[in-house]
Amino acid sequence: MRLLAGPPVAEALYSELQARIAALLYTPHLRVVRVGEDPASVSYVRLKDRQAKKIGLSSQVDVFPESVSQAELLEHIAALGADPEVDGILVQSPTPPHISFNTVLQHLEPDKDVDGLTPVNTGRLWMGLPALEPCTPAGVMRLLQHYGISVAGKEVVVVGRSNLVGKPLAAMLLRSNATVTLAHSRTPDLGSVCRRAEVLVAAVGKPGLITPEMVRPGAVVVDVGINRVGQNEKGRDLLVGDVAPAVAEVASALTPVPGGVGPMTVAMLLSNTVQAAIRRRG
């Protein structure tokens, strides 16, 4: 069984990005907006900011209290959209209940939407037009490409239909000539649908949902799930995927959790930032 580790792929992309940034006459600028003090968001934003600076990007985090009104937040996002020095804008999710994340996305400048989630970029992706693409599914595609796994002509099943992963990944797989089934919680006999897959992607957020009986022998299995299931003796989060560990005995290749798709999400975010800057500034 082949392990499809994310860090070597992310590092290769960071090297590419550093070279591209060094060749520019300006420094692309990423702006991350965080609302509140959700521990996971604080940690994730810190990681994005640190990695952006490490490869030579300019990065700034704007932090708002959880009490900020939606109107105030939208006003700030509009100002960033109008600022010629800002190349990429990311609003960290989740936002507090009184702030509609979908409304936030509709007010983001599409050409600076480095999360690739605005309605405009979503439409561009499905129409096959140049777009800033959602980071996690783009990371999945880059991972498969790095390890020489083609999806052309193959039957691919994606379990999960979120706007963040499942739906955009289906569009990317179709563009790469895969035959795609998008399965979800209402799919009857999920196991038999999954067993058809030559490439199986789990992106639901349910620990151990995919068991060995649901996997076609020799299939490539991509585990996008990151589920916190407690803490170890050092107080660190214990993370597991949507795929049960025993699937390793059936699959020909498998992404680990942690250390699989996760590192690719940040790498693709920074790739989108560089891409957005070059499209805007040349």
CATH superfamily of the largest domain, please? NAD(P)-binding Rossmann-like Domain
Question: Which CATH-level-2 architecture of the largest domain?
Answer: 3-Layer(aba) Sandwich
Strand element count: 11
Q: At the third CATH level, what is the topology name of the largest domain?
A: Rossmann fold
How does the SSE layout of this entry go?
Elements: E1 2-3, H1 7-22, E2 29-35, H2 39-54, E3 58-64, H3 70-82, E4 88-91, H4 101-107, H5 119-127, H6 135-146, E5 155-159, H7 166-175, E6 179-183, H8 190-195, E7 199-202, E8 220-223, E9 227-231, E10 237-240, E11 253-254, H9 262-281
Parallel strand pairs: 1-11, 2-3, 2-4, 5-6, 5-7, 7-8, 8-11
Antiparallel strand pairs: 9-10
Give structural attributes:
2 domains; 6-stranded parallel sheet; alpha/beta; single chain; 3-stranded parallel sheet; globular; Rossmann fold; 282 residues; 11 strands
Could you characterize the architecture of this molecule?
The protein is α/β, with parallel strands linked by helices and 282 residues long. Helix content is 39%, strand content 17%. It has 9 helices and 11 strands. It has a 6-stranded parallel beta sheet with strand order 1-11-8-7-5-6. Strands 3-2-4 form a 3-stranded parallel beta sheet, with helices on both faces. A two-stranded antiparallel ribbon has the order 9-10. Helix 1 (7-22) runs parallel beside helix 9 (262-281) and helix 6 (135-146) crosses helix 7. The radius of gyration is 19 Å and the shape is globular.
